[in-house]
Amino acid sequence: MSAVCGVLVAGLLVPAAAVSGSAASGSIEFFDTLPAELKVDPPNQTTRILAADGSEIANVYTENRTKVALDQISPFVKEAVIAVEDSRFYEHGGVDTTGILRALVSTARGNRQGASTITQQYVNNVLNANLAAEGNEDQIKLNGVNKGVGDKLREMKLAIALEKEFSKEQILEGYLNIVFFNRDATASRLPPGSSSAPPPRTSPSPRPHCWPLVNSPSAFDPINNPESSKQRRDLVLGLMLDQGKITQADYDAAVATPVETKVTPARQGCAYASTAPYFCDYVLHLLENNPAYGADLKERQRLIYGGGLTITTTLDPTAQAAAQEQVNASAGANPDKWGAAMVSVQPNSGKIISMAQNTTFLPAEGSFDSQVNFNVDKLDKDGNDLNGLGGAQPGSTMKPFTFAEWLNEGKSMNTVVNSAQRVYPLSFPWRHTCGKVTGGYSTAQKNQGLGTADDLQNAEPQWYRPLSVLEGLYNSINTVTFASAAQLDFCGIQKIVDATGLHGGLPAEGDPNPKINMSLLGNLLGSTQTSPLTMASAFATFANDGKFCEAIAITSVTDATGKQLPAQSTSCRDAIKPEVARGVNYALQEVLNRGSGSLIQPRISTRTSFPIGAKTGTSNNNGSTWVVGHTTGLATAAWFGDALGAQDRPGQNITVNGKFYQGIDGYMIAGPMFSNFMSRIAPAYGTEPFPAPPSNLLNGSTRSTTPATTAPQASQAPAPAPTTQPTQQPAPQPTGNGNGNDNGNGNG
Question: 332: phi > 0 → left, psi -120 to 50 → alpha, else beta; which?
């Protein structure tokens, strides 16, 4: 303190021209070389994540802080702080020399006394906040801990410079918004429900209720140390009385009031979201992965969690509530931890309307808890983490894309093909103008390797007969899909799949979102894992007359000053011909009217008055089941299956919500989820009739012969088809061709 006073006397109180002696001159030079500029950035503030209607989903923060203007803070707060911290605040120029000399005398007598003004404290808090914002918490300076004479002098000079640049009111406002009062609290904000917070001034002479101020906030915390807190409160009230800021009556009434607290613990983060915690988590991952928010993850997180951002999303709270209700009702917290998920997108914008699953983000008694998002990919396109499951085998929900290429090549959906064909040997003459088809279905060649499986199977033997391509799709018949593919260019099927945004949800061979390789025969029936969000977006292409729109979740981001930051915007492209999309929509409506989807209870096709199309899907071992479909205004993917580990548990002989299932198929659990949700929510997004396909895609009932020898009727159980297991998977998925049992009519 003596050293500080010596330098201050030389540097502040005595004109430089009148100072003699090397010590004084050296002190002046030292003081003058100290920096006089202070970077006053806004302190960390709470970020809010909002639904599309402006309602709050969640808030996130590193410090639970919301900036409040000085005129919005109780006058008793201002008066109390000045009384106890800096009674000459309006008289000094940043450094209180009287206070310094008084502190020196007190210290000489053995009584430690501080001498920092409110301006100095503000400077110190700003310096420390800047260090924290830069990730340099280890350099933070604290009085009595690691602050030396040089640090104190720098603080003083900065305080003087600050007083020249800002008014007293501006400094006081900044101080009250940044200084630490107790856990989770600045002067401008205390935990909700805390009775120690001063009420806003509502009458000419309100009674002051002041809480322990600044000095040792933890020691005087009213929650943990109520007696010490009361002593500190009464001391502050006494100073306010002595300085004429409150009356004797105010003082007497205030000190007679006990310290009582009613604390609501702060709950921040997506785990405590009011709705859609997994969507909330997805939004945060999108921002954390966006280079526009910082050079690296640490810098982005500082902005996201401390920048006081307002993030407006695409989420529809009404749709989200309905989706959550359905996944809970369909699967709930089943003890065997089977997963259920459902996601919806708007076809003409790509906006994610809802995203739900049957788990809790945090452990809770009787719940199935998981932090993994069942609806999204494991990684984004740049290889950044999305905290996603990475998808599941889509089964027969892949069949519409082969059907789309059939129409794309100008063929009628009523053309009859040889559905009895079951053998597709390694030498089969597939057509592929941009690659080579691999694998085969031939029991005779099974032991020859090269990815060959048993003869192709349907779920029931009556479907090995001539069938139209349309019948094959709406009844989900494996052999019809293969008989169709035998007349198509696999390069065209691949282009349809790629154009509609379909991709694998798990990384493979260094590719975070690998192509679904249609050269592998098993992928005709859905053997590569893909996510519900990917499937919903792909089906939305059919709803949008052939235009694919990238899924988006964030429509607007603003910082604490109102500045717009990069968000997402609708991005659409022509993917398939409109007439092809219309033909697919025609067929998918038949799925629900008289095909595999007609077994969904309640039947959506009979309980709604609007056009809707969908496709069921079931994996080879029933461990992954789906219904994916759309109206003109909303596309939804509903999934039920194994979300654990390698996802290799068969969905057979299991009990869900008290009901026993010999084998889970798409229509059984995913079906009602989809049906109930779309019946309730789809009308709000548009349910106009689908445009009719051109006559050439509908007319004709011609027979077409598959270029292979007809195989005998099926006599054995379904068998897996060839597939290539993606590499570098954190949770390898089961192989197979999707030869499930979706409805008793055909394959899932």
Answer: left
Among 696, 745, 697, 747, which residue's Cα sits nearest to residue 720?
747
* Total structural domains within the chain: 3
3-class SS string, 569-604: CCCEEECCCHHHHHHHHHHHHHHHHHCHHHHCCCCH
| CA 666 – CA 743 distance, rounded (Å) | 8
Tokens 């027979």 belong to 703
716 is a domain residue: no
Q: Do 101 and 22 sit in the same domain of this protein?
A: no
Q: Is 97 left (phi over 0), alpha (psi -120 to 50) or beta?
A: alpha
**Tens-digit pLDDT profile for residues 350-364:** 999 999 999 999 998
pTM above 0.70, yes or no: yes
Over residues 223-246, the mean pLDDT reads 87
Range of the domain at 446: 322-334+348-697
- Does residue 148 belong to any structural domain of this protein? yes
Amino acid making up residue 458: N
Interstrand relation of 452-453 and 440-441 (parallel, antiparallel or unpaired): parallel
Buried b (16+ CB within 10 A) or exposed e, 629-641: bbbbbbbbbbbbb
User: Per residue in 313-347, pLDDT tens?
Assistant: 999 999 999 999 999 999 988 899 999 999 999 99
Q: What is the pLDDT of residues 18-41, one digit of tens each?
A: 344 455 565 566 666 656 667 777
- Residues 436 and 564 both lie in one domain: yes
Q: Do 231 and 380 belong together in one domain?
A: no
